[in-house]
Amino acid sequence: MADNQKTVLPDGSVSRPPTAFEYGYDKSFRFLTFFAGLLTVALLVYIFWKLGGQAAPAIREYGLQFLTTVDWNPNKNEYGILAEIWGTLYSSLLALLFGGTLGVAVAIFLTQGFLNARLAWVFRLIVEMLAAIPSVVYGLWGIYVLIPAIRPIAGWLHDNFSFIPFFSTPLAGPGMFPAMIVLSIMILPTVAAISQDAFKAIPMKVQEAAYGMGTTKWEAIRKVVLPTASGGIFASLVLGFGRALGETMALAMLIGNSQQVTLSLFAPATTLASLLASTFPEAGANQIGPLMYAAIALLVITMTVNIIGTIIMNYTSRQTVT
């Protein structure tokens, strides 16, 4: 049979043509993956279509002014989400700054020989367990533990450095700072897990070559390991940032839900996700359109961040290879 024919190659290895079953299996797999990709695109288009249909009246009525004003007053039929856009981006960037840095540091600590294998496994398990804690539990912990703990520090910073915009208001309760800390903890497992995979993917001979040239451990990490794993690290930061942009319950409980644009870390603020979560259950008919408009804005922001992040990640990966 032709399907069972074997050919001896010059190097002595034996090969054969694929059987009809293997050929059909390969074509079926290709078709299923292609169909899955089309289904994903179709689902995204459907989500935009459904949201856009309900948001269309608000888009026609408010236009781009909806994105540049801070009023949200259903009684006067005045709506604007500038404060929510600012709070979403500000809290997510702050969380990425602290949580992303800590996540990469944890990944370095767990993969670069600072701990023995068994102890590193225990720490890795603890970090991964942070991702399993429900968002509402983080919110309750922030309200009853974190805010009382940081209030004295926030008060001292405000009393002594109130001329700095970041400390211009006192921390009376929920605000940007406690929300940012909790958000940093929530994105830490994502950043740490993906960064660990990036570090583990580096061939050991690369680090051995660095040590052979006389570098110390920290020099090898800083000049060899981090640049080589930069693509994976950046991917972890993009995913962490995306998680922060869409976080809902913990921020709704901790950020204060106040319509204002400010740099102060201690002032209450709001986000698009918390606006949707806190307003939609009791929304009247006149609020559905603006809320759907806000949902589209959040979706566009999240997609834009991920697209830009993917482009930069691919660029940095090519630069690393060359």
From TrEMBL:
The keyword Lipid metabolism does not apply. Residues 85-309 form the ABC transmembrane type-1 domain. GO terms for molecular function: phosphate transmembrane transporter activity. It is found in: Cell inner membrane; Cell membrane. One of its GO terms (cellular component) is plasma membrane. It is a multi-pass membrane protein. InterPro entries: MetI-like, MetI-like_sf, Phosphate_PstC, Phosphate_Transport_Permease. It comes from the Bacteria. The chain crosses the membrane at residues 31-49, 89-110, 122-147, 175-195, 224-241, 261-280, 292-313. GO terms for biological process: phosphate ion transport. Keywords: Cell inner membrane, Cell membrane, Membrane, Phosphate transport, Transmembrane, Transmembrane helix, Transport. Part of the binding-protein-dependent transport system for phosphate; probably responsible for the translocation of the substrate across the membrane. Belongs to the binding-protein-dependent transport system permease family. CysTW subfamily. This is Phosphate transport system permease protein. It comes from Martelella mediterranea. The lineage of its organism: Bacteria, Pseudomonadati, Pseudomonadota, Alphaproteobacteria, Hyphomicrobiales.
